[in-house]
Amino acid sequence: MKVSCVSVLVAVTVLVASQAWAQASFQTPLPALDVPAAAVNAFIDALPKDRVSDLPIRITDVGGYKVGVYGVFRPKAMPGDANLHETSVTEIYYMLAGSGTLVTGGRLVNDRSAGTSPNTGTPNRRGTAIEGGVSRHVGPGDIIVIPGRLPHWFSALDSDLRYVIYRADPEGLQKVK
Length: 177
Fold this sequence. Notes:
Layout lengths: L4 H21 L11 H9 L7 E9 L4 E9 L7 E4 L4 E8 L2 E5 L2 E3 L2 E5 L6 E5 L1 E3 L2 E5 L4 E4 L5 E6 L3 E9 L8
Antiparallel strand pairs: 1-2, 2-13, 3-8, 4-11, 4-13, 5-10, 5-12, 6-9, 7-8
């Protein structure tokens, strides 16, 4: 009985694939990342109050990509520029305190490069506003998911804002802290 090269190749491929699956199935899972509410509040309390502060509380490798937890303080007097991250990093805002109008989608007005963020590793674009986006009023308890490459902007603030941003980073741009 002759064994063809194709049969041997198929058998070897199946064997290698099954061993890789078995190894992956029994690997020790990565540890959970815990960020207690008290740590989030203390972190945001310590941020400068004279500018928009968006800094990492913790960044963790979750096996193949990274997730960052950021604390943000945004003073009422400084809603900030419209922003677009030029990567697939998704941002999830969880509003803790304050309220304002958030615009997403559309296109940046006066679009310009803003370089790479030292905090997130993402190349950014900025604008003075957003044209044709969707506006919504946000406040404590609201959650907003902003996919990568989607323009977003706080067009008006009713008060100072305190919020957490979770950044899912499939490209691994964030530095683990």
